[in-house]
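Now read these lines:
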Amino acid sequence: MPIVTQRYWCPECAAAYSQPGNCPTHRDEPLQDLAVPEVRLILEEQDDGAKQRHVSILIGVVAVIALFVMSGVFIVADYLDVDMNLIVVLFVVSGGLYAGAMSMFPYRSRAPEIDPEVLARFEAEREQGE
């Protein structure tokens, strides 16, 4: 996520704007004022929840894929009469699939990243406006 330099934020399209009001793209979505600490906290909490869902979905997908891969590995191992340690193979396959899934489908944060100097400017503008 690029560093935000404008004060008003649309959480739907993850875009920053210089003027308050509604998002030009999402006409029913009011822009959030990043100078308000509670707004930043809510946006960070929403982003944390989205990250948790992302990781949970990846773990579920990896578990299903690992089940099929493990079935294939054990069928081949049984056919070749190879003795395998189930737990070790399960951890190696699952870990490899999870690492691959996280690198192929990384989480992209939608919460704005605000430089401390820019944040101080936002808060000063807010205090002057009140």
